[in-house]
User: Which sequence fits this backbone?
């Protein structure tokens, strides 16, 4: 049964990846500028270079052969050169993407730690004051645009009070050799240079972007947990449990929470695409050296190979994250495996 | 819909409270742990304040285009690389304008002025970096190699980077030097075709750096010649460690620096293109020094106790250049009409906020060859007359290129362009403002793709020739440094005559004629001379603000 489900998901994944790569491949033709430059990122190539490139990219062959060559290069990690830096796009992606994932993961952790308990509390005190306070705060948080919140926090905490730095992942004087490109992990691997100061500084830098980025998923999770909890609490088995004399703590934590969290887990996976979008805005404002800021810069500079590379990397990641959340959800909820068709 | 969970008899309230506590402790435990860890981190910070790493963070306004000053004249790049990574043979004292020994301890000029012999300093070490370990100190080989790269087509590095050496080509040094001879290990002789009075000042510019011959040969062996301008090796107080585009450049201290041991452990350039962000980073202390704070923000900065704003006279000029090879700008009447249509007073107020000097010639008043010229005045009526005479009574359409970064000679080119645009509309000319990313912008202006451009020039030496030859001579046109695309043999003759003599009065006369000629021909309209501003944290000392050349952080230190 589960294998069957996985098979369906995988075939869907393959189709998605095909659509994605085909679209990215087509972008080379759709972008303005020279086709060969869009593919390779090689500016002002001389005659002999052009010849070599034409062979490498199979420019004179049919579209199908070109697409095949494109896929092979993709898997070999040859994503062309960035027009603005002249370095390999894949190298940039490898370096920058972990920073974005790191930020998203921390934001998600904060959202989970705050959102789920808040949702549970709101449902436990349905229509009482804790519910009303939480719901109004959630609505407020949900309505605040990320960039505005970010600027507001910078104005208050960075410029007025000077409590937090406003840019980057770590004080620039701390020199952390990139191994995994996850900053906290790198500092840990590097055995806490400067007596842990670097670690504290990195956390210090993390705080504001994480808070800003966590705002939206937190509010979504609060609302989801609350609604799903209320639905579960309506069900007959809860009524039975209540009739047996269980108190509310037992009722919620032991009986209702597990079932109520199932749709929430699925929601966490779906949040990833929104999170990456919001991360781009956050990165630009906090000068966070992640893939979002890099992509936006690339768009400004018409750096077509970089735009393609960034697009591919981000889309791959979102698809995989969704898929993973879906699989986990199915593992935990046998009912969901029974769907006749795969969904994303 | 009645909710069972909350619909409870009052007797159960204590249990609800209990449960709330339970919930709170259940979920908030990890959060409190994290918070206390953070607080612990903070207290750690104060305890270990002494162990904090020593370094200076400088907020720069653009990515460097190269790490070798020989191949660029872009001010934002020179500010970052020249004085930190490299040394020159001689330098110019900013106060007395006399030559000072640097890598050359003494120099001698022959009777006819055609042979200049430099005696080199002994024991000067090159940087030991991740990619190069020197085995010897600086000798005459390095000096000969560094200059041969510029002028000798047989030098293996001459054609690396398309043989483009804008400064030296625009001042015509490539046609001046006959050969450079190594006399012995510590003596180098420059042999010139003719004597030129600005030769020593050109050798003293930030561009005439000394590179390592040994490193170059190593790259030839490894067949990685193109790395030469990307991974630098010099003799300066700091050595290259890393560069992350759009993020930072990191330099480490060069421990064996020949001059002094003042350098900090690290010098980091935080690349922040946004003007406001640079100021904000000053306020949050993420930057110790910031480049080109804009005039509107100076008061905010000066009001803070921990920030010092320095102001210095600088040799520079901001101008509006016309592409004189492109009709209708090849017509001097059109250029005159355009010049007369601009309200300079308004520009001085709105762009410079009173922190600049309105131009009275192409030379700034602090130059010794300066002479006040009859500048075109703001007179739309006259402008329209000139236009009618030139055959454009109804005006025309044109491009107005505005540089995208704030430079000393033009803190806000965009705003200036908008003011000019509205002034031009008065006389029936429809101008479109064009902007590109800074390095692309310079490249395209170099290819003369523009109609007219708002740009400027900051001097590299106090010699007045620095305002003429690199900017408006014919050789500058060929090397793409002449934004007016203006090549006038008569003008070039004046410049050559001025360089041929070393008599100060005579030179002055030639330069005054040149200034006059520029105002009558108007290939460029000089607009203003800016002041150099710099904001720095009060704990940083020893930053040298010179009236010419790039910023030097060689002596900067932090308490």
Assistant:
């Amino acid at each position: 049964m589960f294998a069957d489900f996985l098979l369906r998901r995988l075939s869907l994944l393959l189709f998605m990846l095909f659509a994605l790569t085909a679209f990215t491949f087509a972008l080379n033709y759709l972008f303005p500028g020279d086709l060969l430059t869009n593919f390779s990122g090689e500016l002002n190539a001389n005659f002999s270079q052009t010849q070599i490139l034409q062979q490498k990219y199979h420019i004179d062959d049919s579209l199908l052969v070109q697409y095949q060559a494109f896929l092979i290069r993709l898997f070999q990690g040859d994503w062309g050169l960035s027009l603005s830096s002249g370095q390999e796009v894949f190298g940039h992606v490898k370096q920058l993407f972990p920073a974005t994932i790191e930020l998203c993961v921390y934001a998600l952790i904060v959202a989970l730690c705050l959102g789920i308990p808040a949702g549970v509390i709101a449902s436990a005190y349905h229509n009482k004051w804790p519910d009303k306070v939480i719901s109004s705060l959630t609505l407020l948080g949900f309505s605040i645009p990320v960039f505005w919140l970010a600027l507001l926090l910078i104005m208050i905490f960075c410029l007025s009070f000077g409590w937090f730095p406003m840019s980057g992942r770590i004080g620039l004087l701390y020199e952390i050799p990139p191994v995994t490109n996850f900053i906290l992990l790198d500092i840990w691997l590097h055995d806490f240079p400067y007596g842990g100061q670097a670690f504290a500084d990195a956390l210090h830098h993390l705080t504001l972007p994480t808070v800003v980025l966590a705002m939206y998923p937190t509010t979504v999770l609060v609302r989801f947990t609350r609604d799903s909890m209320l639905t579960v609490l309506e069900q007959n088995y809860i009524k039975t449990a209540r009739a047996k004399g269980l108190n509310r703590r037992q009722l919620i934590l032991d009986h209702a929470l597990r079932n109520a969290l199932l749709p929430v887990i699925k929601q966490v996976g779906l949040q990833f695409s929104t999170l990456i979008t919001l991360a781009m805005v956050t990165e630009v404002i906090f000068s966070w050296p992640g893939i979002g800021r890099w992509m936006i810069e690339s768009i400004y500079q018409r750096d077509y190979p970089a735009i393609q590379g960034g697009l591919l990397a981000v889309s791959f990641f979102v698809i995989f994250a969704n898929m993973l959340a879906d699989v986990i959800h199915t593992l935990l909820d046998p009912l969901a495996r029974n769907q006749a068709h795969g969904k994303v | 819909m009645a909710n069972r969970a909350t619909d409870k008899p009052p007797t159960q309230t204590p249990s609800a409270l209990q449960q709330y506590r339970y919930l709170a402790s259940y979920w908030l435990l990890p959060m409190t742990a994290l918070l206390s860890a953070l607080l612990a981190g903070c207290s750690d910070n104060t305890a270990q304040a002494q162990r904090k790493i020593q370094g200076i963070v400088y907020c720069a306004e653009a990515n460097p285009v190269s790490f070798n000053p020989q191949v660029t004249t872009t001010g934002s790049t020179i500010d970052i690389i020249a004085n930190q990574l490299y040394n020159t043979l001689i330098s110019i004292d900013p106060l007395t304008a006399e030559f000072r020994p640097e890598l050359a301890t003494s120099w001698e000029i022959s009777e006819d002025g055609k042979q200049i012999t430099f005696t080199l300093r002994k024991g000067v070490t090159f940087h030991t970096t991740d990619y190069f370990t020197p085995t010897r100190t600086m000798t005459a080989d390095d000096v000969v190699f560094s200059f041969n790269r510029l002028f000798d087509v047989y030098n293996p590095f001459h054609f690396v980077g398309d043989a483009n050496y804008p400064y030296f080509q625009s001042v015509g040094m490539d046609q001046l030097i006959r050969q450079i001879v190594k006399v012995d290990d510590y003596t180098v002789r420059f042999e010139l075709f003719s004597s030129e009075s600005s030769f020593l000042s050109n050798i003293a510019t930030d561009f005439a750096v000394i590179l390592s011959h040994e490193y170059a040969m190593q790259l030839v062996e490894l067949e990685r010649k193109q790395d030469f301008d990307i991974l630098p090796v010099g003799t300066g107080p700091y050595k290259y460690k890393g560069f992350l585009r759009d993020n930072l450049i990191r330099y480490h201290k060069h421990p064996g620096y020949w001059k002094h041991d003042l350098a900090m452990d690290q010098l980091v350039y935080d690349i922040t293109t946004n003007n406001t962000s640079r100021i904000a980073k000053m306020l949050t202390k993420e930057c110790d020094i910031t480049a080109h704070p804009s005039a509107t923000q100076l008061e905010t900065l000066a009001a803070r106790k921990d920030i010092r704003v320095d102001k210095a006279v600088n040799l520079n000029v901001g101008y509006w250049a016309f592409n004189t090879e492109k009709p209708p700008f090849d017509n001097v009447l059109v250029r005159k009409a355009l010049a007369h249509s601009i309200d300079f007073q308004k520009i001085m107020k709105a762009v410079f906020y009173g922190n600049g000097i309105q131009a009275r010639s192409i030379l700034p008043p602090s130059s010794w060859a300066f002479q006040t010229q009859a500048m075109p005045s703001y007179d739309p009526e006259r402008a329209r007359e000139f236009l009618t005479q030139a055959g454009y009574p109804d005006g025309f359409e044109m491009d107005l290129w505005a540089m995208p970064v704030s430079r000393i000679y033009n803190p806000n080119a965009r705003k200036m362009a908008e003011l000019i645009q509205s002034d031009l509309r008065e006389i029936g000319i429809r101008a479109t403002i064009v902007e590109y990313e800074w390095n692309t912008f310079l490249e395209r202006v170099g290819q003369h793709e523009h109609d007219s451009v708002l740009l400027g020039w900051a001097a590299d030496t106090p010699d007045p020739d620095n305002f003429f030859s690199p900017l408006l001579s014919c050789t500058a046109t060929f090397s793409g440094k002449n934004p007016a695309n203006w090549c006038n043999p008569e003008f070039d003759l004046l410049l050559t005559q001025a360089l041929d003599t070393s008599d100060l009065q005579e030179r002055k006369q030639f330069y005054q004629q040149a200034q006059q000629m520029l105002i009558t021909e108007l290939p460029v309209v000089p607009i203003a001379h800016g002041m150099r501003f710099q904001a720095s944290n009060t704990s940083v000392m020893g930053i040298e603000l010179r009236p010419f050349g790039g910023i030097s952080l060689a002596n900067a230190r932090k308490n």
About this structure: Chain B touches chain A through 51 residues (CB under 8 Å). Residues 1-50 of chain B have pLDDT under 50 and may be disordered.
